[in-house]
Amino acid sequence: MEQGFISDVISTDLHSGNINGPVYDLPTTLSKFLNLGLSLEEVIEKSTTAAAKAIGREAELGHLKIGTVADIAVFDVIEGEFELFDTHGTMVIANQKLQADLTIREGKL
Question: Which residues does UniProt call coiled coil (predicted)?
Fold first, then answer.
């Protein structure tokens, strides 16, 4: 990002080798980008509409429209001091993180 490259899409690449760290989950990954300087709006757009478009499913995923799947994640932005790690084990102290408060998948809580 310091060199002007900002990814079009944010995803976790979550698998058994990183679920216990440093990835953990999508809110943690989104928090890392939030603390790198992206706005909350950019973080959400890159992990929803841009991600759906990247896999050719923008007609059905990444937004809320009549006739599409109702997948909704409700986050709270928490203020404080939080340790975030990259894949090399480097830690930064972030002053914000996203916390998942509610998930609806295909219209079901």
Answer: none
